[in-house]
């Protein structure tokens, strides 16, 4: 819009300058040729000046019309922008005070809390799996020891030797049973966590 205004202003200035230059030229020639045989030149120069005046008037009218159109468009755009800004401001205020904003914040808090709980559960699950593996290895070891004791007892029986005390055998079985129960309990806890 500024470019169009400046271009129209330049054209108007050039045309006005040309008109004044022609008027001066006309006046100068008129003063030089005031003789009786030169009214034709004067008439030609007068017509050119009149045409130039008409052209300048047309350019001025066109320029004023274009400027008025641009001002109207600028005012319309300004009103639209103002209305859009007010609408945006109103919407932002409404959104800030809206209960959905509170609900969204609550949802974000719940998601954050859920992620924290999931992290804790994952850590507990890893710990329980480690304990389960440890207990399983211990059960296997005790089962092997118990098996070797039973083989020793069986071999002594067959050899006619007196077996080790009954209490040692019962103590080994009791420890194995206790460990098996604990491993089973840990497996149930782990299964409930993974669900």
How would you characterize this protein structure?
This protein has 195 residues and is mainly α. The chain has two domains: 96 residues; 84 residues. Helices cover 92% and strands 0% of the residues. The protein has four helices and no strands. The longest helix is centred in the middle third of the chain and has 61 residues. The protein is rod-shaped. The two termini are 69 Å apart.
Number of strands: 0
Kindly report the oligomeric state of this protein. Answer: single chain
Give the total of domains. Answer: 2
What is the 3D shape?
A: rod-shaped
Question: Strand-and-helix sequence, N→C?
Answer: HHHH
Percentage of helical residues? Answer: over 70%
Largest sheet: none
Strand-pairing-aware structural class: mainly alpha
State mean pLDDT (0 to 100 scale): 79
Radius of gyration: 54 Å
Number of helices: 4
Region (Disordered): 143-173
Biased composition (Basic and acidic residues): 148-173
Offer a concise description of the structure.
With 195 residues, this protein is mainly alpha-helical. The chain folds into 2 domains: 2-97; 111-194. It has helices at 2-32, 39-97, 99-159, 166-194.
Which key features would you list for this structure?
mainly alpha; 2 domains
Blueprint of the fold:
Elements: H1 2-32, H2 39-97, H3 99-159, H4 166-194
Helix pairs in contact: 1-2, 3-4
């Amino acid at each position: 819009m500024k470019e169009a205004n400046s271009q129209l202003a330049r054209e108007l200035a050039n045309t006005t300058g040309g008109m004044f230059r022609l008027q001066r030229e006309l006046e100068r020639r008129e003063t030089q040729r005031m003789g009786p045989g030169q009214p034709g030149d004067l008439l030609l120069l007068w017509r050119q000046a009149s045409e130039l005046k008409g052209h300048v008037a047309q350019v001025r009218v066109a320029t004023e019309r274009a400027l008025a159109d641009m001002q109207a468009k600028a005012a319309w755009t300004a009103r639209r922008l103002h209305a859009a800004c007010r609408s945006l401001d109103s919407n932002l205020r409404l959104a800030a005070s809206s209960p959905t904003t509170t609900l969204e914040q609550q949802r974000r808090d719940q998601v954050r809390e859920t992620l924290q709980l999931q992290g804790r559960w994952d850590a507990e699950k890893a710990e329980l799996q480690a304990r389960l593996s440890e207990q399983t290895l211990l059960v296997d070891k005790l089962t092997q020891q118990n098996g070797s004791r039973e083989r020793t007892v069986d071999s002594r029986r067959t050899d006619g030797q007196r077996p080790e005390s009954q209490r040692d055998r019962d103590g080994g079985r009791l420890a194995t049973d206790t460990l098996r129960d604990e491993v089973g309990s840990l497996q149930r806890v782990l299964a409930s966590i993974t669900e």
